[in-house]
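Here is one chain, start to finish.
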Amino acid sequence: MNIFRRPDYRSDATLFIDHLKTAKPAIAADQQKGRSLLWDKAIDRLSLKGFRSAKVMQRPYPYQTNHE
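Its structure:
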């Protein structure tokens, strides 16, 4: 071990979160449950294919005022 090595720094926020996780171990499961409500969705591949095929290409300069 290096004699000049400093102890690892741990911020107040990190210490708070570590203490909270040890005090309430169910927090990780609640986080996963909340994540699944918002992000883990089943994707309808047929609808997604339709959305992508209906996409209209944007003009190179959308703010141009004279129309052709």
